[in-house]
Amino acid sequence: MSTSGPTVVITGALSYTGKYATRLLLDRGYAVRTLTFHPSRENPFGDKVRVFPYDFDRPDRLAETLRGASALINTYWVRFPHGTSTFEAAVQNTRILVDAAKTAGVKRVVQVSIANPSAESPLGYYRGKAQVEQIVRESGLAYTILRPTVIFGLEDILINNIAWFVRRFPVFGVPGDGSYGIRAIYVEDMANLMVDALEGKANTVLDAVGPETFTFDQLVTLIARNVGRRVRLLHLPTPLAYLFTRVIGWFVGDVVLTWEEYQGLMANLLVTRGDSTGETLLSEWLAENSGQIGVRYASEVARHFARPS
Ligand SMILES: NC(=O)c1ccc[n+]([C@@H]2O[C@H](COP(=O)([O-])OP(=O)(O)OC[C@H]3O[C@@H](n4cnc5c(N)ncnc54)[C@H](OP(=O)(O)O)[C@@H]3O)[C@@H](O)[C@H]2O)c1
Fold first, then answer.
1. What is the pLDDT along the chain (309 residues), one digit of tens a residue?
2. How many angstroms is it from 229 CA to the middle of ligand 1?
3. Atom of ligand 1 nearest to the CA of 14
């Protein structure tokens, strides 16, 4: 397919959120390149998307990949530290990527961040994202920073794995009182925000959140109802709930939820108060996709750390 529109480099087009944004970019006539750690992963876009490796140790090559692009959409981040893949390394790599974009003459950055980032946060994810936002703000490039809470969709991990648990166990261990909230955004709504941001002129910071907020208890109950299961919520001291997820993690070969993720969830960091920027109702989406969610466990470790085949 020939494209006549401007060129956009998006990270992670072969992964989760970046894949949805890439579909939209192609629909809207952009020429697309992507950066990934898995260049040999199955490419659903064929020759419509040119695939390049994250050359963080070769900024000159990174700049060549970005040359001629009008914008960079950056989804790159790590969910939790694993080996050399740490929050600190991700901040440093993002700095290299943004510098390379500047060197290459890119005009605009769309940075996918997180809701409620804070440079003072004790949580590495939220502190690192605040540092990344600062790098983007101080880059001199035009920017849009998007701050999602949880991004739900068929390839999502959190909602899917809650469904996986309730499909298999009659009891669901909830850390604490379960009253803390989640206000997730649908992945296609998120992709829309990412691609619409390319047309933005001003520098903008926007929460990416859907119309519905649920307490954790309500969310687990809703998911269970949709997959046709009755589940008893068992409120546990947080360390015990965490221990439980560690044990399950050993069985499924994954990090189910980190201690820091427990802290972020229970501190209401997956909620914002402003207007919704996504339209899709999680409750409706769950009803429409009840046959698919939670059928298989979604493993973060398998997704990002399995050896390339
Ligand atoms: N998913 C959510 O619910 C959620 C919620 C809030 C914020 N966010 C933010 O939204 C963005 C996209 O999230 P996503 O879940 O859709 O991510 P993703 O597509 O799975 O990954 C995005 C990019 O980061 C790379 N990456 C992911 N984990 C990595 C690791 N451990 N080490 C090295 N590289 C890694 C991926 O590399 P490959 O290309 O090699 O796969 C990909 O290029 C991220 O910035 C995330 O912080 C996501």
1. 456 689 999 999 999 999 999 999 999 999 999 999 999 999 999 999 999 999 999 999 999 999 999 999 999 999 999 999 999 999 999 999 999 999 999 999 999 999 999 999 999 999 999 999 999 999 999 999 999 999 999 999 999 999 999 999 999 999 999 999 999 999 999 999 999 999 998 999 999 999 999 999 999 999 999 999 999 999 999 999 999 999 999 999 999 999 999 999 999 999 999 999 999 999 999 999 999 999 999 999 998 887 554
2. 31
3. 39
Gap from CA of 195 to ligand 1 centroid (Å): 17
- State both tokens at 78: 């790590």
Q: Which of 299, 304, 309 to mutate to test the pocket of ligand 1 (most atoms within 8 A of CB)?
A: 304
| The model's pTM | 0.96
> Read out DSSP for 77-134?
--SS-BTTB-HHHHHHHHHHHHHHHHHTT--EEEEE--SS--TT-SSHHHHHHHHHHH
Query: Residue 206 C-alpha to ligand 1 middle, in angstroms?
Result: 19
Tokens encoding 187? 């992945």
List domains and CATH numbers for the chain: 7-151+184-208 (3.40.50.720), 158-182+212-305 (3.90.25)
